[in-house]
User: Which sequence fits this backbone?
């Protein structure tokens, strides 16, 4: 009988402890939920934006030579001779080795098709092109004209962009403007809600590099005469946006 009483007491103690632990867990959960709700209710999230129009300072274009001949070796040899002449002219304009990079090399058969759609090899085509990247935009017309005069017959689209160095110079100003834009919006919204800004909870930044302007080069332009090829870089847009979450009360 005494042993049974002890077991009963132990049973009730365990039940009591379980109830206490359950109540404590419920209380902690309620407090955490209340705090979470308060944080959500007492913040506003605002975006800010700033942009600047800038003149691009970098140009990229592809310059190549395409040659067809009866044999692959003849096509390759002719292409190599012309491409070496083109590269020599590119360097003569002041371009450095680091500004001239081989971008494409290819040798492939050229086919003829008869009435029965049977193909026969009539020769070979050899292609070689380099990508030119320069910040000397005033030199672009000379680069194109001298390349074509040396034998280049495949000029790709020219793209203009804003260099990383120039974007870094603009970054601080754009960030200040974007943050000021977000702050102004937040202050106006808080005032409309009858509250005030008390601090910043989180913030993030997203920047956009200068848009690339494309100039489609027409080989017929050079073939028409000796006039210099006109090139206009236009303007690019560099922008930055921020997302800021403010505390309000």
Assistant:
């Amino acid at each position: 009988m005494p042993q049974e009483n002890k077991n009963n007491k132990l049973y009730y103690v365990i039940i009591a402890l379980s109830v206490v632990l359950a109540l404590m867990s419920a209380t902690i959960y309620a407090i955490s939920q209340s705090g979470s709700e308060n944080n959500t209710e007492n913040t506003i999230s605002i975006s800010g934006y700033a942009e600047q129009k800038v003149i691009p300072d970098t140009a990229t274009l592809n310059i190549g030579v395409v040659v067809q001949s009866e044999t692959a070796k003849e096509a390759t040899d002719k292409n190599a001779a012309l491409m070496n002449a083109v590269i020599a002219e590119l360097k003569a304009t002041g371009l450095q080795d680091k500004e001239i990079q081989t971008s494409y090399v290819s040798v492939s058969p050229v086919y003829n098709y008869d009435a029965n759609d049977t193909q026969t090899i009539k020769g070979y085509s050899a292609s070689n092109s380099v990508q030119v990247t320069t910040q000397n935009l005033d030199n672009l017309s000379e680069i194109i004209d001298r390349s074509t005069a040396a034998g280049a017959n495949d000029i790709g689209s020219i793209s203009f962009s804003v260099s990383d160095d120039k974007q870094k110079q603009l970054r601080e100003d754009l960030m200040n403007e974007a943050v000021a834009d977000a702050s102004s919006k937040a202050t106006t919204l808080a005032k409309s809600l009858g509250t005030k800004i008390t601090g910043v909870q989180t913030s993030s930044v997203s920047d956009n590099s200068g848009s690339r302007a494309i100039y489609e080069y027409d080989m017929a332009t050079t073939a028409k005469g000796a006039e210099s090829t006109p090139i206009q870089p236009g303007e690019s847009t560099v922008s930055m946006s921020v997302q800021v979450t403010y505390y309000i009360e």
Remarks:
- DSSP finds five helices and nine strands in the chain.
- The longest helix spans residues 2-41.
- Confidence is low (pLDDT under 50) at residues 35-39.
- Residues 2-41 form one domain.
